[in-house]
Amino acid sequence: MGTVHLPVMPAEVVRFLGCRPGGVYVDCTLGGGGHALEMLKASSPDGRVIGLDVDEDALEEARRLLEPFGARVIILRENYRDVKAVLERLGVGEVDGMVLDVGVSSYQLERAERGFSFMHDSRLDMRMDRRIKTSAYDLVNGLPAEELERIFRTYGEERRARTIAKAIVRSREKVPVETTGQLARIVLMSLPPRYRHGKIHPATRVFQALRIAVNNELENLEAGLRQGVCCLRPGGRMVVISFHSLEDRIVKNTFREISSGCICPRDVPRCVCGRHPLVRILTKKVVVPGRDEVESNPRARSAKLRAVERVVH
Ligand code: SAH
Hints:
The structure is a single chain. The chain is built from 13 helices and seven strands. It is an alpha/beta fold. The protein has two domains: 10-101 and 218-310, 3-Layer(aba) Sandwich (Rossmann fold); 118-215, Putative methyltransferase TM0872, insert domain (DNA polymerase, domain 1, Orthogonal Bundle), CATH 1.10.150.170. Strands 3-2-1-4-5-7-6 form a seven-stranded mixed β-sheet, with helices on both faces. The longest helix has 15 residues, at 245-259. It binds S-adenosyl-L-homocysteine. S-adenosyl-L-homocysteine binds at residues 5, 7, 29, 31-35, 52-55, 58, 79-81, 101, 103, 105, 128, 220.
């Protein structure tokens, strides 16, 4: 389709990971392989990258790009929320670094048949992993109005969630909502005319919410962060790039929690929780791309990077 997926903040990723020869790194969201390529270059001549993705199209793309690196790369169709088990199966002990560049890739958005976007009118789908059974079509046509409302409200932070959910139910009573275009129109027409011409299409939040629900994105993210840090050697690093406030909140809160030691109330004379910090936060302030990058890569627009380093205890 001619889409090039540019990796977001590639220089920052490599710098925060501290890529070096001989290192072993995990790219939990391989996508087109952009970050993995940078990590391989920065860890030449013998650093290794284990790349995971659930999307077979992405894996194929990455395999092509990374072929020249031969045995330095292992590519697996796995969900990063299982990263610990995956590394155990490979017989890989602790790793030197891990990157999570969450969300959807430009390839996924651009490929009409994947049904992620209302820029193309195609069958509603939105599954990153096509082995899972429930697609956006099933949610939109099968869930009760209250469930749809909850999804739009919690995952899309959509204020008109109830109105939109009701409009969908009314419409599907006549004919099923088959396509992304149909859904976008229903959302648009459910709103008073003055809301129909904003800067972003009114259906954007609804699409984001459905995508998150279909792919269990927030649960996977939290599980991946917690498991991932347990796979790092002391001094090993994790870099996470997120793309909207719900994701960033999870990253920020999880990092804060695992970087703080004792959580006993102040008035307890001696620690009884026995907790130690697992990591040290490297990004006191969230890192965002520079203006040049945002101009040349639309996907970078809302990107936020946070990084931690595993500590010994
Ligand atoms: N860093 C990549 C782009 C990543 S886009 C590059 O530079 O090319 C995000 C990718 O993460 C998508 O391909 C998506 O399929 C994948 N993904 C999302 N959730 C995942 C999960 N839970 N496990 C594994 N891969 C996931």
